[in-house]
Amino acid sequence: MPPDTPTPGSPEDWLRHARSDLALAQQRSAPEILLTTLCFHTQQAAEKGIKAVLVQQGLVFPYTHDLARLITLVKDARLPWPEELDAAADLTEYAAGSRYPGPGGGISETEYQQVIATAQRVLPGLRTSYADPHRREMRVAKWHDLTHMGEHCIPPEAGRTPPRL
Hints:
By secondary structure, the chain is mainly α. The chain has one domain: Nucleotidyltransferases  domain 2 (Four Helix Bundle (Hemerythrin (Met), subunit A)), CATH 1.20.120.330. 44% of the residues lie in helices and 2% in strands. The chain contains five helices and two strands, in the order ααβαααβ. It has a two-stranded antiparallel sheet. The two termini are 21 Å apart. Residues 132-164 have low confidence and may be disordered.
């Protein structure tokens, strides 16, 4: 692994993947690329960015693409969450439905531009909210707090130092 590659599963690694998804979402280089596929990557960028925050804070979270649910975990932990980032929850609809052919039609250029604008606010918004070193203290959720969700959860790694987002 190159020296500048983050530790797999670390918050930095989650953010690296989030930035990659956002970069892919902005690629309009070939006419064969469907706007629905690009919108899927906007959802993935937001999801991975939010999960980076949860990992950074030592919080467990379910395997889910539901951004509203992930945002609720951040807010329930009383972590800073800029209100303007609530719009990220609207990207959830692009997690699965837009990836496969079927009913629902395509995505217009206008809708695509709105989705991109939303995704472009999420990662910088998270970096701004979590850049203050006084806000980086570890907050560890109890495993049983999330077991009622009926899904597998990712437990926090013991002894992780909070990284810079």
